[in-house]
Amino acid sequence: MSSKRDHLIEQYAAHIKGKFGENPDMDLLTKVVMGLGPAIYNSDSSKVSGTDHTELETVKNNFLLKKLGLADGPDLMEGIKSVISVYGTSERNKYRAVVYYMLAKHFKKESVYN
């Protein structure tokens, strides 16, 4: 099972390099992936739909508020939309692990995973 996870982590790292032009912090990325648990193996839950408002609200509530402990405000949805925008509207497969990783970096909350 870990080899499948390792393969996914490499895939996510390639998206971070290719779409965001950043060299991923592999330790942080691995922790984000592990935090998502079995969701990464499900084709639906492993991705985020950038055009589905309900989905973006879920990202905000479950990840930014609950996991990262951020205070609610308009900057949260702006951060999500910023990450989705950089990921690219043409990219249909926006991986949840990549979106969460980039949001943790965007809001400078990497420490949550330490």
Describe this structure in words.
This protein is mainly α and about 110 residues long. The chain has a single domain (about 1-114), classed as Jann4075-like (Recoverin, domain 1, Orthogonal Bundle). Helices cover about 60% and strands about 0% of the residues. It is built from five helices and no strands. The protein has helices spanning about 1-20, 25-35, 55-65, 75-85, 95-105. Helix 2 crosses helix 5, helix 3 (about 55-65) crosses helix 4 (about 75-85) and helix 4 packs across helix 5. The longest helix is centred in the first third of the chain and has 19 residues, at about 1-20. It is globular. The model has no long low-confidence stretch (mean pLDDT about 95).
Gist of the model:
This protein is an all-alpha fold and 114 residues long. 61% of the residues lie in helices and 0% in strands.
Q: How do the helices and strands line up, and which of them pair or pack?
A:
Blueprint: H1 2-20, H2 26-36, H3 53-67, H4 74-87, H5 96-106
Helix pairs in contact: 1-2, 2-5, 3-4, 4-5
